[in-house]
Model the fold of this input.
Amino acid sequence: MNNLVFLGAPGAGKGTLAAILKEKLHVPHISTGDLFRDNIKKHTSLGDEAEAYIHEGKLVPDEVTEAMLRDRLERQDCTEGFILDGFPRNLSQAAYLDQLLAEQSKALTAVVLVDVPEKVLLDRLTGRRVCPECQATYHVLFAPPAKEGLCDRCGARIIQREDDQEKTIRHRLEVYRENTFPLIRYYEEKGLLVKADNSEGEADDHAEELFRKLMKR
Ligand code: AP5
Ligand code: MG
Done:
């Protein structure tokens, strides 16, 4: 069973590695950030509630995020495993997740820390472009699409995320250090932490190495 959490700073490559690993492990990739952005695009009440927090780089309140996560994890496609990307983000969300999984007679099998030196993060985020239709991720320098400005996978015009402005990025990094960083110790103490390097070199190679590590557990 692969009940996985991907943990890491903004821009570390959680989404990039999860998109590769979900194909290898045959599990859904659940990004709470993507779920919020989809709701914002569709103007749902959840999207309206979350929008201002996300644009300012703040965490969306726990109750809102937890309810959304519960709905998603209860769906049929999660029975054989999942990759959670961006949840939990603080200790109280981690406790909520433990309880939610226990209710379903499940538990996490590993927590992957996507590890990248902080100086790399700003360049990764300021150059990132995303597909608003299929969520594919690109980088203007490190991972450009074949045709400039267009998604390789679905042909839609790629965009810059609204929270990828330098000021907002700096705030997201602070929020990470203050709220999310303590989760590393929390999961280390539970014996669940697996480190995935995604600093220099190709994300595909890092994903392959991570896959091998997970298979050995
Ligand atoms: P979220 O969407 O989760 O954003 P984040 O955590 O800030 O992480 P990112 O998506 O920015 O980075 P990533 O690690 O996925 O990196 P990526 O793979 O794209 O959350 C957004 C917001 O939603 C939050 O700020 C909050 O408001 C709200 N939210 C979400 N979850 C919440 C929760 N649980 N509670 C409360 N609020 C919540 O890679 C980055 C770039 O690097 C890309 O351009 C990529 O192409 C490039 N790259 C990746 N790997 C490599 C490599 N090896 N070499 C070169 N370039 C690379
Ligand atoms: Mg992401």
The first strand starts at residue 2 and ends at 7. Residues 166-180 form the longest helix (15 residues). DSSP finds nine helices and seven strands in the chain.
